[in-house]
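Blackboard transcription, Thursday session:
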Amino acid sequence: MNIIVCIKQVPDTTKVKIDPETNTLVREGVESIINPFDIYALEEAIRLKEKIGGNVTVLTMGPPQAAEVLREAIAMGADDVYLLSDKAFAGADTLATSYTLSKGIEKVGQFDLIICGKQTMDGDTAQVGPEIAQKLGIPVVTYVSKIEDIENGQIKLKRMVEDGYEVIETETPLLMTVIKEINEPRVPSLRGIMKAKKIEIPIWDASDIGAEGEKIGLSGSPTQVVRIFAPEVSKEGEILEGEPTEIAEKLILKLKKGKVI
Amino acid sequence: MDYFLTEEQQMIKDLAKKIANEKVIPVRARLDEEEEFPWAIMKDLAQADLLGLYIPEEYGGVDFGCFETILVVEELSRACCGVSVSYAASALGAYPILLFGSEEQKKKYLPDIASGKKLGAFGLTEANAGSDASAIQTRAEKDGDFYILNGTKQWITNGGEAEIYTIIAMTNKDKGSRGATAFIVEKGTPGFSFGKKEKKLGIRCSTTRELIFENCRIPKENILGKEGMGFIVAMRTLDMTRPGIGAQGVGVAQGAFDAALDYSCQRIQFDQPISSFQIIQHMLADMAIQIEAARALVYATAKMIDGGAKNFSKESAMAKTFASDMAMEVTINAVQVMGGCGYMREYPVEKMMRDAKIIQIYEGTNQVQRNVIALQLIKENMGKK
Ligand SMILES: Cc1cc2nc3c(=O)[nH]c(=O)nc-3n(C[C@H](O)[C@H](O)[C@H](O)COP(=O)(O)OP(=O)(O)OC[C@H]3O[C@@H](n4cnc5c(N)ncnc54)[C@H](O)[C@@H]3O)c2cc1C
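(Written on the board underneath:)
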């Protein structure tokens, strides 16, 4: 079983602020971490490998320092890692990112399963996973909370939806995005950390993966960020008074007036 | 203080810290309250390769020394001494095999301890033999190729949870201190059972149980070293592990100090943070000095051991005694600095104060350690003449 996991280095957003002047994230001095959802993807891949054998390859697109997250992946138990890094990749939106990653995946070659986290905690779009699947022409199942069964090219997945869950049977190769309910990630091992420290991380640039210039980075990104801002916190609140039934009536009226319901 | 850790030592410390912060701190209060053995955390420590930290590679470990081990014990103790003693007691059970075991014994038992598949434990103490270990009454009588064990060990850490026990028993009462022998006893051996689980003041998630031997047949291959070497095995082992007990003191004191410092900067009384009062400042300064001094002593002792020193009973005893007395004082003062909040279970320091007490007692009480130190000093002085 060849499994590919796509991970991203993100600023630890619990500590991140937005620059009010430029409306961009202030990344300086903020610790970089593996996108938390991607750790679940990595854990699931490693568990599958331990259960049925195979190989776990991890890809990330990012600046040279993103190699750190690949080292962490090795420490957890990944077999091969590749860093997709090129100045020309910079400024990519989800479309250009998924294109770049799909070209990287094609270069890796053989795979049965691609696992991504459900979304990143900096961009929060949840688009890159499904877009990779679309580019590679394979099925995608999002918000997976459990791999129920996997055998002979058949896979049975449980996915969370708003009002419950769905069980989906489909075929590999397949891309899935996972949610945190899927597993409890392991701590890295000391042997893994020592191995990761020594390993040389292979870097692929645009020409290595055969990416077309107009489809990557800023030029491949139709998304235009007009403005990013922290929503203003309004402290105003209104306390409705009266008997519970009265309050409920008042509340419904207000919600209707505000076009909430 | 910068101790100029090597890159690998820093990695080990960071890994232990990660486990302490992410896996221990969130559950320590519940484990304490429910007196539940920290199995999940032991599994995490195993996954991280830390249970085999001090075991050579050929027996499945990662081949580091006493110093790296105490870094881990310190970090875990900063979060919870109940967890760190469960970790350290496995090493206490494994060290006799490492130090005195035959090649076959090492191959048979150490890999499972290194991988964390099995935990170790060490059984010396009995109801009538605490500080006076030579008073043990558990007997091992020779019967062909077997020894028949009878007696009860008391207050054995990891008792019942561990699979591999080093047990000290009398094989020849007439020979006194040369009449004891160390045996490896596996859980599940017929005639080996467990008594009650103790209810304790602190380190409540660690298990402390009686070990009961009733005509328990142990093959003679399970003797560690030679017949008659039991107390030597025990004393050498405890010399090796005592700096780890010192590291528990350093860790728990650091944990309590961090909480007290943080609190003192936030708690406002008389319109100012209590950290602005000189008496609080001096308490904090004294705590920090004490912790750092103990850490330096514990680290130096571990380095002396790793450096290949032959005799380090005195230094080990010093590290254990100083660090544990320090931990008791610092944790009490941490509670004091935090006032009523310090006394509440909602905050971590009351538990740390309860936990710190045991460090002055087990692996030889601090009074007994002072005896050891003084006797050695006198001996050294006689040697000079
Ligand atoms: C939680 C816990 C876990 C333990 N885990 C283990 C374990 O895993 N394995 C194991 O074998 N044992 C274990 N022990 C036993 C521990 O090592 C003993 O409790 C300790 O050695 C002291 O023995 P004692 O409690 O019988 O005290 P005692 O020997 O009865 O001492 C009582 C008091 O008298 C003092 N005293 C005794 N003799 C002298 C002397 N000669 N000079 C001056 N003062 C003296 C002592 O310092 C102490 O203050 C554990 C104990 C506890 C409480």
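Lecturer's comment: Chain B is about 55% helix and 15% strand.
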